[in-house]
Amino acid sequence: MAISPRTLYPLRLRPRREDKIWGARNLAPYFEPRSCSEPALGEAWLTYEQAEVENGPLAGRTLGELMEACGPRLLGNTHQKREYKRVSADPALARDEAPSPYFPLLTKLLFTSDVLSVQVHPPDAWALENAGGPGKTEMWYVIDAEPDAKVALGLTKHLDREQLADSARTGEIEQYLNWVPVQAGDAIFVPAGLLHTLGSGLKVCEIQQNSDLTYRFWDFNRPGADGKPRQLHIDEGATV
Asked: Environment class of residue 98 by beta-carbon count within 10 Å: exposed (0-12), middle (13-18) or buried (19+)?
Protein backbone atom coordinates (compact mmCIF):
# COMPACT_ATOMS: atom_id res chain seq x y z
CA MET A 1 0.00 0.00 0.00
CA ALA A 2 1.04 3.61 -0.46
CA ILE A 3 2.71 5.22 2.55
CA SER A 4 1.29 8.41 3.97
CA PRO A 5 1.23 9.94 7.46
CA ARG A 6 -2.38 8.83 7.82
CA THR A 7 -1.45 5.17 7.43
CA LEU A 8 0.77 5.05 10.52
CA TYR A 9 -0.15 2.76 13.40
CA PRO A 10 1.85 1.00 16.18
CA LEU A 11 4.64 -0.73 14.26
CA ARG A 12 6.39 -3.96 15.17
CA LEU A 13 9.83 -4.13 13.57
CA ARG A 14 11.74 -7.29 12.67
CA PRO A 15 14.93 -7.41 14.80
CA ARG A 16 18.32 -7.92 13.23
CA ARG A 17 20.28 -10.52 15.21
CA GLU A 18 24.04 -10.27 15.67
CA ASP A 19 26.08 -13.17 17.05
CA LYS A 20 28.93 -12.10 19.36
CA ILE A 21 31.72 -13.93 21.17
CA TRP A 22 30.51 -12.36 24.43
CA GLY A 23 26.83 -13.11 23.71
CA ALA A 24 24.47 -15.46 25.55
CA ARG A 25 22.19 -18.41 24.86
CA ASN A 26 19.60 -17.82 27.59
CA LEU A 27 17.52 -15.28 25.67
CA ALA A 28 14.09 -15.61 27.32
CA PRO A 29 11.61 -14.02 27.16
CA TYR A 30 12.64 -12.31 23.91
CA PHE A 31 13.91 -15.20 21.78
CA GLU A 32 14.11 -18.96 21.91
CA PRO A 33 17.13 -20.24 23.86
CA ARG A 34 20.10 -21.46 21.86
CA SER A 35 21.94 -24.73 22.35
CA CYS A 36 25.65 -24.97 23.12
CA SER A 37 26.29 -25.94 19.50
CA GLU A 38 24.79 -22.66 18.26
CA PRO A 39 26.57 -19.30 18.27
CA ALA A 40 25.79 -16.95 21.14
CA LEU A 41 23.48 -14.02 20.42
CA GLY A 42 24.93 -10.69 21.50
CA GLU A 43 22.70 -8.04 19.95
CA ALA A 44 19.20 -7.68 18.55
CA TRP A 45 18.83 -4.41 16.62
CA LEU A 46 15.31 -3.06 17.05
CA THR A 47 15.29 0.36 15.37
CA TYR A 48 17.48 1.28 12.40
CA GLU A 49 16.86 2.40 8.82
CA GLN A 50 16.69 -1.08 7.27
CA ALA A 51 14.39 -2.55 9.95
CA GLU A 52 11.28 -4.00 8.28
CA VAL A 53 7.75 -3.68 9.59
CA GLU A 54 6.31 -7.09 10.55
CA ASN A 55 2.65 -6.25 11.19
CA GLY A 56 -0.27 -4.63 9.43
CA PRO A 57 -0.64 -3.18 5.93
CA LEU A 58 2.89 -1.71 5.92
CA ALA A 59 4.53 -5.11 6.50
CA GLY A 60 7.74 -5.38 4.48
CA ARG A 61 8.36 -1.63 4.38
CA THR A 62 11.51 -0.35 6.03
CA LEU A 63 11.82 2.29 8.69
CA GLY A 64 13.86 4.33 6.21
CA GLU A 65 10.99 4.29 3.71
CA LEU A 66 8.59 5.44 6.39
CA MET A 67 10.95 8.27 7.34
CA GLU A 68 11.02 9.50 3.75
CA ALA A 69 7.26 9.32 3.32
CA CYS A 70 6.07 10.52 6.72
CA GLY A 71 8.82 12.85 7.94
CA PRO A 72 7.73 14.89 10.98
CA ARG A 73 4.66 12.68 11.51
CA LEU A 74 7.05 9.87 12.43
CA LEU A 75 10.03 11.76 13.88
CA GLY A 76 8.58 15.01 15.21
CA ASN A 77 8.79 18.59 13.98
CA THR A 78 12.19 19.35 15.52
CA HIS A 79 14.05 16.49 13.79
CA GLN A 80 16.44 17.69 11.09
CA LYS A 81 16.62 15.46 8.05
CA ARG A 82 20.18 14.20 7.60
CA GLU A 83 21.97 11.70 5.43
CA TYR A 84 25.15 9.90 6.43
CA LYS A 85 27.25 7.11 5.03
CA ARG A 86 27.40 4.23 7.48
CA VAL A 87 30.90 4.19 8.98
CA SER A 88 32.71 1.76 11.27
CA ALA A 89 36.01 1.59 13.12
CA ASP A 90 36.56 -1.87 11.60
CA PRO A 91 37.29 -1.85 7.84
CA ALA A 92 35.67 -5.29 7.60
CA LEU A 93 32.38 -3.81 8.82
CA ALA A 94 32.48 -0.60 6.79
CA ARG A 95 29.92 -0.48 4.00
CA ASP A 96 30.58 0.94 0.55
CA GLU A 97 27.27 2.70 0.13
CA ALA A 98 25.93 6.15 -0.60
CA PRO A 99 24.73 8.39 2.24
CA SER A 100 21.23 7.41 3.31
CA PRO A 101 18.46 8.82 5.52
CA TYR A 102 19.55 8.75 9.13
CA PHE A 103 17.17 7.48 11.81
CA PRO A 104 18.40 9.25 14.95
CA LEU A 105 18.25 6.30 17.35
CA LEU A 106 19.64 2.79 17.23
CA THR A 107 17.93 0.65 19.86
CA LYS A 108 19.30 -2.77 20.76
CA LEU A 109 18.82 -5.62 23.18
CA LEU A 110 22.16 -6.88 24.51
CA PHE A 111 22.74 -10.33 26.03
CA THR A 112 26.08 -10.96 27.78
CA SER A 113 27.73 -14.11 29.08
CA ASP A 114 31.18 -12.55 29.06
CA VAL A 115 32.64 -9.08 29.37
CA LEU A 116 32.62 -6.85 26.28
CA SER A 117 35.76 -5.13 25.04
CA VAL A 118 36.92 -1.98 26.82
CA GLN A 119 35.85 0.68 24.35
CA VAL A 120 35.00 4.29 23.65
CA HIS A 121 32.75 6.11 21.18
CA PRO A 122 33.58 9.54 19.71
CA PRO A 123 31.47 12.70 20.02
CA ASP A 124 29.76 14.16 16.95
CA ALA A 125 32.35 16.83 16.12
CA TRP A 126 35.25 14.36 16.18
CA ALA A 127 33.34 11.68 14.29
CA LEU A 128 32.16 14.03 11.53
CA GLU A 129 35.66 15.42 10.99
CA ASN A 130 37.55 12.13 11.16
CA ALA A 131 35.06 9.49 10.00
CA GLY A 132 32.32 11.33 8.11
CA GLY A 133 29.45 10.17 10.31
CA PRO A 134 27.80 10.87 13.65
CA GLY A 135 29.34 10.03 17.00
CA LYS A 136 27.71 7.98 19.70
CA THR A 137 26.28 8.81 23.09
CA GLU A 138 24.24 5.98 24.58
CA MET A 139 22.20 4.84 27.56
CA TRP A 140 21.75 1.41 29.12
CA TYR A 141 18.59 0.22 30.81
CA VAL A 142 19.27 -2.97 32.76
CA ILE A 143 16.41 -5.41 32.13
CA ASP A 144 17.88 -8.34 34.04
CA ALA A 145 21.12 -8.90 35.92
CA GLU A 146 22.70 -11.91 37.57
CA PRO A 147 24.04 -11.48 41.12
CA ASP A 148 27.32 -9.53 41.13
CA ALA A 149 26.71 -8.19 37.61
CA LYS A 150 28.63 -5.01 36.92
CA VAL A 151 29.61 -2.46 34.30
CA ALA A 152 32.77 -0.38 33.94
CA LEU A 153 32.43 3.40 33.56
CA GLY A 154 35.64 5.33 33.17
CA LEU A 155 38.85 4.76 35.11
CA THR A 156 39.83 5.00 38.77
CA LYS A 157 43.07 6.81 37.89
CA HIS A 158 43.71 9.77 35.61
CA LEU A 159 45.83 8.81 32.60
CA ASP A 160 47.04 11.11 29.86
CA ARG A 161 46.75 9.96 26.25
CA GLU A 162 50.18 8.35 26.16
CA GLN A 163 49.65 6.54 29.47
CA LEU A 164 46.20 5.41 28.36
CA ALA A 165 47.53 3.99 25.09
CA ASP A 166 50.42 2.25 26.85
CA SER A 167 48.10 0.70 29.46
CA ALA A 168 45.87 -0.63 26.68
CA ARG A 169 48.79 -2.20 24.83
CA THR A 170 50.01 -4.02 27.93
CA GLY A 171 46.59 -4.88 29.38
CA GLU A 172 47.37 -2.84 32.49
CA ILE A 173 44.18 -0.89 31.76
CA GLU A 174 42.21 -3.71 33.42
CA GLN A 175 43.36 -2.68 36.89
CA TYR A 176 42.15 0.90 36.36
CA LEU A 177 38.59 0.12 35.26
CA ASN A 178 35.91 1.71 37.45
CA TRP A 179 33.52 -1.21 38.04
CA VAL A 180 30.00 -0.36 39.21
CA PRO A 181 27.49 -3.00 40.45
CA VAL A 182 24.14 -2.97 38.64
CA GLN A 183 20.73 -4.54 39.04
CA ALA A 184 17.49 -4.75 37.07
CA GLY A 185 15.87 -1.34 36.72
CA ASP A 186 19.10 0.67 36.64
CA ALA A 187 19.48 3.32 33.92
CA ILE A 188 23.03 4.36 33.04
CA PHE A 189 24.06 7.29 30.86
CA VAL A 190 27.21 6.69 28.79
CA PRO A 191 28.32 9.92 27.10
CA ALA A 192 30.61 9.91 24.08
CA GLY A 193 34.25 9.90 25.16
CA LEU A 194 33.70 7.77 28.30
CA LEU A 195 35.68 4.54 28.40
CA HIS A 196 33.27 1.70 29.26
CA THR A 197 32.29 -1.93 29.04
CA LEU A 198 29.50 -4.29 30.09
CA GLY A 199 30.19 -7.27 32.31
CA SER A 200 28.69 -10.75 32.05
CA GLY A 201 25.23 -11.91 33.09
CA LEU A 202 23.25 -8.96 31.75
CA LYS A 203 20.21 -8.30 29.59
CA VAL A 204 20.29 -4.64 28.61
CA CYS A 205 18.27 -2.32 26.41
CA GLU A 206 20.74 0.05 24.77
CA ILE A 207 19.45 3.33 23.32
CA GLN A 208 22.11 5.16 21.35
CA GLN A 209 22.90 7.53 18.56
CA ASN A 210 22.76 5.60 15.32
CA SER A 211 26.46 4.99 14.76
CA ASP A 212 28.81 2.01 14.35
CA LEU A 213 31.90 3.88 15.57
CA THR A 214 33.41 1.84 18.39
CA TYR A 215 37.11 2.02 19.26
CA ARG A 216 38.37 -0.98 21.22
CA PHE A 217 41.16 -0.39 23.73
CA TRP A 218 41.39 -3.86 25.22
CA ASP A 219 39.76 -7.21 24.49
CA PHE A 220 41.21 -9.39 27.27
CA ASN A 221 43.52 -11.31 24.88
CA ARG A 222 40.67 -13.53 23.71
CA PRO A 223 40.18 -14.82 20.17
CA GLY A 224 37.35 -13.63 17.96
CA ALA A 225 34.90 -15.87 16.13
CA ASP A 226 37.60 -16.60 13.52
CA GLY A 227 40.10 -17.69 16.16
CA LYS A 228 42.19 -14.54 15.76
CA PRO A 229 42.36 -11.56 18.14
CA ARG A 230 39.86 -8.85 17.30
CA GLN A 231 41.22 -5.57 16.00
CA LEU A 232 42.07 -2.87 18.54
CA HIS A 233 41.93 0.87 17.84
CA ILE A 234 44.19 2.22 20.58
CA ASP A 235 45.65 5.24 18.80
CA GLU A 236 42.28 6.39 17.44
CA GLY A 237 40.51 5.85 20.74
CA ALA A 238 43.13 7.75 22.71
CA THR A 239 42.43 10.88 20.66
CA VAL A 240 38.65 10.83 21.22
From this structure: exposed
Domains of the chain, by residue range, sit at 5-152+182-215
d(C-alpha 55, C-alpha 157), whole Å: 50
Does residue 216 have an active-site annotation? Answer: yes
Please give the Cα distance from 117 to 231 (Å, whole number): 11
Q: Are 232 and 218 in contact (CB under 8 A)?
A: yes
Q: How many CB atoms lie within 10 A of CB 157?
A: 10
Query: Is the CATH number 2.60.120.10 carried by domain 5-152+182-215?
Result: yes
User: Quick one: which of 115, 114, 184, 185 has its CA closest to 145?
Assistant: 184
d(CA 103, CA 73) in angstroms, rounded, equals 14
Closest CA to 15 of 3, 36, 4, 31: 31
CB 149 within 8 A of CB 185: no
| Distance from C-alpha of 32 to C-alpha of 69, rounded to nearest angstrom | 35
Catalytic: which of 6, 216, 222, 230? Answer: 216
**Per-residue pLDDT for the chain (240 aa), expressed as one digit of tens each?**
567 667 789 999 999 999 999 999 999 999 999 999 999 999 999 998 899 999 999 999 999 899 888 888 888 877 766 655 555 555 544 444 555 567 889 999 999 999 999 999 999 999 989 888 889 999 999 999 999 999 999 999 999 999 999 999 999 999 999 999 999 999 999 999 999 999 999 999 999 999 889 999 999 999 988 999 999 999 999 999
